[in-house]
Amino acid sequence: MEIYNLGNSNTVLNHFISQMRDKDIQKDRLRFRKNLERVGEIFAYEISKKLRYSQKQTVTPLGIANVSTPDDNLVIATILRAGLPLHQGILNFFDNAQSAFVAAYRKYDKGDDFHINIEYASSPDLTGKTLILADTMLATGASLEVTYNRLLEDGEPDYTHIVCPISSFYAVEYIKKHLPGDKVSLWVAAIDEELTSHSYIVPGLGDAGDLAYGEKI
Known about the structure:
This protein has six helices and 14 strands. Helix 2 packs across helix 3. By secondary structure, it is an alpha/beta fold. A seven-stranded mixed beta sheet has the order 1-11-9-7-4-5-6, sandwiched between helices.
């Protein structure tokens, strides 16, 4: 599996990630959502370099221009709710893409033990398409694995790009073992070393869904 850590390069992406992590700046929900959307746009641009292209002719007022444009049939899938601003950022660049949404969350059993529960999924046929699966945080990898397998029920894509800006080292190793490495790439902006006993990423940024949309009951 290819792992692309864009945070290793000195770009404006790191500025947006820094603001998303900052406990004072992240009190501004609008700023948090906007930064997450910007991060999605940056990932979309980088992923665009990995797509398939062919030359096409564009008629201008003065003639014909030969332009190389992407051929992939894209579907952008997002885990609700934290992934919505990230989804919008990716969709801003891939405006002709179809969309899929999955409501997946941790359901705690006893103590810190939990399983992943999916209540809702909506997706077009994924057969032969290029899937971009986006979620803000990748803590244990369990939600992502369950979501990926659920989406496969709607057809098997040719290739999947997973976008998780803040990831844990544990989760990266987990999905490398549990997802098909020849058909999946992982895109991150930071890989944090620590997970708490409650499976929260440290230093992480907190609960991305709450920061974007307010605390839930």
